[in-house]
């Protein structure tokens, strides 16, 4: 009797033990199978591979005879040792024909040096449950010593060089393979590929070892439910889904679901998502890809892409996918990857194969714990959205989207270079678009830097101002305990800030080394938005850019940008024929607060339809060559004790601040009288010292008479206009009147309880 005949005979003997459970007349018959009825021992010693082969043949034979059947395979508590490699041209996953009319579809994928035999293989099966007693009780583990990779078929030793011939390839196969089936449930069991004890050969394929050695493979199958399953330590993927989907706009839900599962320490991918329309993944882990250490070679065995999850459609599409409460931590390349190679014209960025991919309440963590790219995520494909996610380490790229729905978007996410078990986060930035993103949007997000810079936003070429990334109501937090590791500055090379934007210090920040934000191309603060740059010791450089605060359309909506203490903004241009342009729109303001600094250098044009305000104790330096156009009711207010000079924040620049200001031009309106100060403002308010932290006198303005009254005992010392020049006032009982003065900003010098007080008022009649 041949070995094949013996195996077929062994497969069919356990069928005598099958019990058939008849339910009510409204339900189909359920066939209940127990893996031990097929000869499995489950003691962690005996080889149980034949038992699983027999169970596979039994299930497939049932559906060949009755496609409407229901089958449940129970794998009780135990450790089941599996794994078999068949020589070239021998029969792989073979079962006897059911009958002459319905032969069993034997595998013909047997032309490798060693062909891995699938443990459970279901083809055209429907309504199947594969159930264990829990991931901590039911374990299917591959035996030690299986070969994987490229080998010399004559010696059985690893090939001397990388090979791509099947004559050299050793595969391991899949633990569970489901093909052209429907309504399959896998739950409450653990699969262990045991790549740590495999014989690893040389590389095979384009990068690493691209041969089958996977936990669960699903192809052309709908309604799959994987729950409470672990598939770890496989030489290729923990799980792979490859359904051939049609038009992504077609209303079709394949009802695929993965929940409460883990796919950790696999070599190529935790999850390869190659094609699907309709998938939900809940509370699952895709961690430590490429980190398994082989005990024979004492090294890791990574293969690219090396992701927690890789969304990479192959001859298909990926659409309508949701990951919620999932982890993607410490993976060789990316926690989440979806890259399309630009070297292949058939896989260009214009070839759209992804749509509506959502990550909600997930953790993505790039960790510098070994080799590899080690980033949180890298996405160039379209339709990805992240909401309420923690993204630790660098997010790279973004899609070249034609519309908002296809753009990479983030809502209420936290970006931080947070350490993992003492290991630093991956990347030099929190976000690096690398010139790839169009219409990328961040809304209500926080960016926390501990050791690295916040953003590197390189404008896409050719540049289009309508495609710039948008930061809406986001906060940039400096929490540096040490100086940033990267010497590179932050770059916003074409960006729009909208809503309320804050750049602030964390309360726990202990290192105040200078950092820099550079803004190029275009910087937009649209109408109704407020940007407050209050983080300590930050230099903001705007160069060769169109810098717009507010809009050109008349409005009553206030817009503002504020530079806080120990912050400096440096606005300059390098192209006389195409100068940097600062525009302050109507009802918009640009405020330099006490201790802050503003330097405006040559090759710059300023249009002011709103208000430029420099507070007491703030630094202001404008090169005489700068062209300033005052438009309509535009105003420039420079407080009496503002400092006309160079701030230490800007001391590395090779220029000296002069005492001469440029002449302001009233933009086409001869009735507007507005000009810049012509000389350095000297303040008479030098002695006694100013102290604004003591008791304040109260002022009581009259809206009808223009008179201002003070608390009893208050003495008016002087009144100064916006240029710092003293003005005459009309004294009245317990106060004075400004009714005779033009509208504008005025500074009052008062003496109250032997303390000097400065109060600033705006006169609008």
UniProtKB/TrEMBL annotation:
It comes from the Bacteria. InterPro entries: Pectin_lyas_fold (IPR012334), Pectin_lyase_fold/virulence (IPR011050), RHGA/B-epi-like_pectate_lyase (IPR024535), Secre_tail (IPR026444). Residues 1-28 form the signal peptide. Residues 33-301 form the Rhamnogalacturonase A/B/Epimerase-like pectate lyase domain. Keywords: Signal. This is T9SS C-terminal target domain-containing protein. It comes from Hymenobacter rigui.
